Amino acid sequence: MIQTLSGLLTPAIAVITASILVFQYLLAKRRWRLDLYDRRYPVYLASMEFLSLIMQNANVSREELVKFLRNCKDKEFLFGNDVKEHLEELYNKGVDLMRHTSLTEAGNMEEEKRLKWIDEEMNLIAWFGNQFDVSKRIFGAYLAITKK
């Protein structure tokens, strides 16, 4: 009887050790996902804040553009190309909006051209309004912590 138990002890220890290793691996994987989430979420918040500022003011300042760039500086390392391209598009359209606003406020252009610039400015603002849902969809794939 003792010989049988001692013979089963080695496989039992091997099974317990393997189980512990599997659980440690799963725990490490979950911790890695949460750590990655903690790094990605501020970039998402920065984009939402940027969109909110534009919708609130119907304009964007140079300081807000620089702050947006600073808050999204890790995009290449934390996300795929889809988020990187989306954030670059937000920035570029923000620059366009700032340029349109400053030129239409300058008041030194002919009326027809000024009205065209104002129309383009309104289209840009409407575009930014649509980006809330687009951003949620694009970032959602990276921020979902319930997968796997």
Mean pLDDT: 88
SS class? mainly alpha
Largest sheet: none
Low-confidence stretches: none
Cα separation of the termini: 45 Å
Q: How many separate structural domains?
A: 1
Give me the count of strands: 0
Quaternary state of the chains: single chain
Order of helix and strand elements from N to C terminus? HHHHH
| Proportion in helices | over 70%
Give the overall form.
rod-shaped
Number of helical stretches of at least 4 residues? 5
Strand residue content: under 5%
Report the C-alpha radius of gyration, rounded.
Answer: 26 Å
Summarize the structure.
With 148 residues, this protein is mainly α.
Account of the protein in words:
By secondary structure, the chain is mostly helical. It has one domain (37-143). 87% of the residues lie in helices and 0% in strands. The chain contains 5 helices and no strands. Helix 1 (2-57) runs antiparallel to helix 2. The chain is rod-shaped and about 105 Å long. The protein starts with a helix and ends in a 5-residue tail after the last helix. The mean pLDDT is 88.
